[in-house]
Design brief:
- This protein is an all-alpha fold.
- It contains 18 helices and no strands.
- The chain has one domain.
- This is Multidrug-efflux transporter.
- Keywords: Antiport, Cell membrane, Ion transport, Membrane, Transmembrane, Transmembrane helix, Transport.
- It is a multi-pass membrane protein.
Length: 453
């Protein structure tokens, strides 16, 4: 069922989120571009250290992010006073995560050398990772606030806050990397520090909207600053599978990435550059997925499943159109896009050779990414997080096992490993689409359990 009205509604809600997520992609893009001005080792280290950071916090990020669906469901039910209570519980979760994340920081920092990375790479990956982990509490709180405003449909607040944060981050990171404006030249540590500082400033911008007098009165914010056992129980019941699924999928991806980087510096740098361009597709599509989760959650809360069907079809139209255009660009201009990251004075031929073939693979899977994100946003919004967890974990674990065989046992080359990765994303898209269009997630008795406290 397709509705032009719902398409417009989703587009209005998703566009600020796409801009917001795109701003994040731009921030990462800028950091890696600045680091490429030093050398290709810094680029590879920023990918290894950055992805390892996201893996380390993604379990808690997945739980906190589910606040989007919870808030949207309460909003759809018109129980507005419950919405800010979700934010308070998210802060409690962020606080509770800190001892665990401190232990993770100490243990994971040793993994870069244990997996066989070049010592020059390890020397950069480790401090980059540690500085980002030091700011983990702020990243989680920022995520909780963004999820809240998305859940109540005020995605422009998210866009404004995140865009301002990125506009602060880019010059700050540049100054800290290269030692401008009287600041010390910290190299890759400066890139991480700039990201943390910008994240803290972004929380301040969110707070201006959150504590606005009209908003405080409408949503009874003053009464929300307490532990709410029933909301926390529901948060963990539905958010835990989401967090575990996010963690396993990111962990297996990170292990694959680290294994792939063991092919050599050129292969690792090529992967970093390809994924940098991939972010311009994947990260904005995450914005669409977040908007879909919010709208689906709202319609589930209101009991209007016909509108939920319209959201799915509209999401497919937007996602496949956007990713299809980018796929064509990635294929036609693959060499030119790689050359953007050529470090001055270095021989770029090896990176160009492997990277151009990887770009073809990326052009093949970006539309599969769009299907995955539309479907996962739908299932999360409807509370079908347990199935999503089981399916995603199974797919990613099988992918990793195959990669271990390909890379370590059969000792195949990087392009064979990359082909397996591309095929896995295609299979993932087919399985997720099958679940969404089977309709089992929308059974009334199952939705009633989702909404129960």
């Amino acid at each position: 069922m397709f509705s032009l009205f719902t398409l417009k509604e989703l587009f209005r809600l998703a566009l600020p989120m796409v801009v917001s997520q795109g701003a994040f992609a731009l921030m990462m893009f800028a950091d890696r571009f600045f680091l490429s001005r030093i050398d290709s080792v810094h680029v590879a280290a920023s990918l290894g250290g950055g992805v390892t950071f996201f893996v380390s916090i993604c379990f808690f990020t997945g739980i906190v992010s589910y606040g989007n669906a919870l808030v949207a469901q309460y909003y759809g039910r018109r129980t507005l006073e419950f919405c800010p209570r979700v934010v308070t519980q998210a802060v409690f979760i962020a606080l509770a995560s800190q001892p665990v994340l401190l232990l993770v920081t100490l243990l994971v920092a040793q993994s870069f050398s244990a997996i066989g990375h070049d010592p020059s790479l390890v020397a950069l990956e480790k401090p980059y990772f540690q500085v980002l982990m030091a700011g983990s509490f702020f990243f989680l709180v920022k995520n909780g606030l963004a999820s809240y405003f998305t859940g109540i449909g005020r995605t422009r607040v998210v866009m404004i806050s995140d865009v301002i944060g990125v506009l602060l981050n880019i010059p700050l990171s540049y100054a800290l990397i290269f030692g401008k404006l009287g600041l010390p030249a910290l190299g890759i540590v400066g890139a991480a520090l700039g990201t943390v500082i910008a994240g803290i400033l972004t929380i301040g911008i969110y707070a201006l909207f959150y504590f606005n007098r009209i908003h405080v009165e409408q949503f009874k914010v003053r009464e929300s600053f307490r532990f709410d056992r029933s909301i926390m129980r529901r948060y963990l019941r539905l958010g835990f599978p989401s967090g575990l699924e996010f963690f396993i999928s990111m962990a297996t991806f990170n292990i694959f990435m680290l294994l792939y980087q063991s092919y050599g510096i050129s292969e690792g740098a090529a992967m970093a550059i390809v994924f940098n361009w991939d972010m311009l597709s994947f990260v904005p599509m995450m914005g669409l997925s977040i908007a879909i989760m919010s709208l689906i959650g709202r319609h589930v809360g209101a009991g209007d499943m016909s509108r939920a069907t319209q959201v799915i079809s509209s999401g497919c139209v937007i996602g496949l159109t956007y990713s299809g255009v980018l796929a064509i660009c990635f294929f036609l201009f693959r060499v030119d896009l790689l050359e953007v990251f050529a470090s001055p004075g270095e021989d770029f031929s090896a990176i160009r050779d492997i990277g151009s073939k990887m770009m073809i693979g990326m052009a093949c899977y970006v539309m599969a990414d769009a299907v995955i994100l539309v479907c996962s946003g739908t299932l999360r919004g409807a509370g079908d997080t347990r199935w999503l967890m089981i399916a995603s974990i199974a797919i990613h674990v099988v992918m990793l096992l195959v990669q271990l065989v390909v890379i370590l046992v059969l000792e195949q080359g990087p392009l064979v490993s990359w082909s397996v990765f591309v095929a896995t994303l295609g299979l993932n898209a087919v399985i997720f689409a099958g679940r969404v269009f089977s309709g089992r997630w929308r059974q009334p008795e199952r939705l009633a359990r989702v909404m129960a406290h």
